[in-house]
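To assess whether ligand presence alters the predicted conformation, the chain was also submitted together with flavin mononucleotide. Input:
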Amino acid sequence: MNAQLLAPLPSPRFLLAPMEGMLDSRLREVLTSVAQYDWCVTEFVRVTDTLLPHRSYRRVAPELSFGARTAGGVPVRVQLLGSDPGCLAENAARLVDLAPAGIDLNFGCPAPVVNRHGGGAVLLDTPQVLFRIVAAVARAIGGRVPFTAKMRLGVRDKGRAIEAALALADGGAELLVVHGRTKEEAYRPPAHWEWIARIAQAVHVPVVANGEIWTVDDYLRCRAASERRDVMLGRGAVADPFLVERLRDRLAGREIRSWSADWPRVLPLIFAYWSCVRRDLEPRHTPGRLKQWLNLLRRNYPQAEVLFQQLKPLREASEIDRQLQARTEVHSRCVA
Ligand SMILES: Cc1cc2nc3c(=O)[nH]c(=O)nc-3n(C[C@H](O)[C@H](O)[C@H](O)COP(=O)(O)O)c2cc1C
C-alpha cells in the first residue's frame, strides 16, 4: 500500500484577510492573541510612481520591527496595490529588505479611487498586464520571501476569471487567494465558491478560498463547493474572534462552544483593543474604530449589540473611557 495514501491530510490553513480601514495592526494584535492563523495580510500599501520609504511599510505593518510577527506569533505579510510593473517591482525589492513574512499583491480592491488609477480589481480585465506585473515583482523578490496574489472573479462578469488566475500563476505568484465575487458584486452575498474550484483546477499553484465565511457551517459549505480546505477569513473573523477555534474544534470532532457562552472571553478583547487604539491614534479617531468593530461583533453577540447602542451616541474618547472603565470593574468582579 502506498504510504502517502495513508498519511493524514495536513490541517487546513486559516488566513486572516487584509481589510483596509478595519483590520489594522491593533485589531490584528487582538485577534491573533486568541487565534492561531497561519498568516495574516496587512491593509494594502498603495504604490503609484515613487519608491516608498521604509516608514510607509512600517506604518501599516509595525510588526516588521518585531520579526514580522504579531505579539501572538502569527506571521504578517504585506500587501501592495498598484498597476505599474516597474514601480511595484522596485517597491517590492525595497520591502524585501524589511523581511516581511511574505508579499501579496492586491487585484481585488473595488474602490473607485483606486480603480480610477488602474489599480485593484479593474486589472482583472487585462490578464496580459496582470502577467507583466506579477512577473516583474516575482523577479524583484527573487524567491527571498513568499509571494502571493489576491484576486476577485472579474470586473463585471466572470468570463476572464480563469485567464486572470492563469496570468497570476504563470507570472510567478506562488499561491492565489480567490475572493469569489466580481468587482461589480462588491460584498453582496452569495460568494461564488464553485468558481474557486474551477480556478483551482486550472492553475498549478495552491488556491485559497475567500468570501462569506461567517460560521462553521459556511466553512463546510465553502469547502464542498470550492474543493478547498484552506480559507481566508475577513469579516467573519472580525465578527467572531473565536471563529478559527470553532473551526478547529469542529474539524477535530470536539464540541463547538456557543456564542453566548463566549462573551466573557470577547469583552477583555474589546478592552484590549480600546487601549491599543487609545495608545496609537488621535482621540478623535478612536470612537469610530471601536464602534466599527462592535458593529460586526453584534451580528453574533447580543451583548455587543447592547454595548454598541450604549456607545453609539458618544463622540468623545473620554466618554468611552468612562463607560468601559465601569464595565471593566463589573467584569473583574464577575470573573474574580
Ligand atoms: C472594509 C474592508 C476592507 C478591505 N480591504 C482590503 C484590502 O486592503 N486588501 C484586499 O485585498 N482586500 C480587502 N478587502 C476584501 C477582504 O480581504 C475579503 O476579500 C472580503 O471581505 C471577502 O471576505 P469576507 O467575506 O470573509 O469578508 C476588504 C474588505 C472590507 C470589507
